[in-house]
Design goal:
Belongs to the 2H phosphoesterase superfamily. ThpR family. Hydrolyzes RNA 2',3'-cyclic phosphodiester to an RNA 2'-phosphomonoester. This protein is α+β, with helices and mostly antiparallel strands. It has one domain (about 5-175): Cyclic Phosphodiesterase, Chain: A. It is about 25% helix and about 40% strand. The chain contains 3 helices and 10 strands; from the N terminus they run βαββαβββαββββ. The protein has helices at about 15-30, 55-65, 95-110; strands spanning about 5-10, 35, 45-55, 70-75, 80, 85-90, 125-130, 145-150, 150-160, 165-175. Strands 3-1-9-10 form a 4-stranded antiparallel β-sheet. Strands 2-7-6-5 form a 4-stranded antiparallel β-sheet, with no helix packed on it. A two-stranded antiparallel sheet has the order 4-8. It is globular, with a radius of gyration of 17 Å. It binds adenosine-5'-triphosphate and magnesium ion (MG). Adenosine-5'-triphosphate binds near residues 45, 118, 127 and 157. The site of adenosine-5'-triphosphate (ATP) has 10 residues, from β1, β3, β7 and β9.
Length: about 180
Amino acid sequence: MSESRRLFFALPLPTKLQKQVIQWRADSFEAEAGRPVAAANLHLTLAFLGDVSDAKARVLSGIASRITSPTFSLTLDDLGHWPRPGVVWLGTRRAPLALLQLASLLRSHAARNGCYQSTLPFHPHVSLLRGATRPVALPASTPEWQLDANEFSLYESQYHQGRTRYQCLQSWPLVASSPC
Ligand code: ATP
Ligand code: MG
C-alpha cells in the first residue's frame, strides 16, 4: 500500500516579506493572542488536498505543470480573526482575478481527483497566529505589503514533535505577460 502525504498548493512569501511580517506581528500583538506561525511557514493556501497517495500526487503535479496562469500582485491590506479555528490572518480587500482563477482551477482539479474541497468560498489569506480562540485586539491597519506572485508551489505538511513544517516539493512559474 502506498503511503499518503498531507499536501496543499500555495503561494510562498518571499524571505524579505516574511521578515517584515514577523517584525510587525511581534510589535502589534500581545504574546497571549495566539501561537505565531514560523516565518518560513508563512504562505497563502490556494488549494488544500489533504492526505494524498503518491500516485494521486503525481497526477496533480502533472496537472499543475500544464497550468498557464499570469503573474499577479496583491496588496496585503486586510486583517481578521476567526475565533474558530483560532486564526488571525492577513488578507486582501481586492483579490486579483488571476489569483481567484488560479485557486479555482487548482481546487476544481483537486475535487475531480477526489480531494474534498470545502464548500466555504475561497478567502485568500496568510495565517499569522494559530490557537487564537479568545478575543484578539487587532491593530487598526496593516502596512499594506505587496505580494508579487511569480510562482506557485506544492507543499507537504509534516507534523513532528509538536511542530508543523512545510516542505516545498515542487514549484511552477506563473507567466509574465509580454509587453504589447
Ligand atoms: P497545524 O494544523 O499543525 O496547526 P497548519 O494548519 O498550518 O498547522 P495543515 O493543517 O497541514 O497545517 O494545513 C496546511 C495548510 O492548508 C494551511 O494553510 C491550512 O490553513 C490549510 N488547510 C488545512 N486544512 C484545510 C481545509 N480543510 N480546507 C482548506 N484549507 C485547509
Ligand atoms: Mg491545520
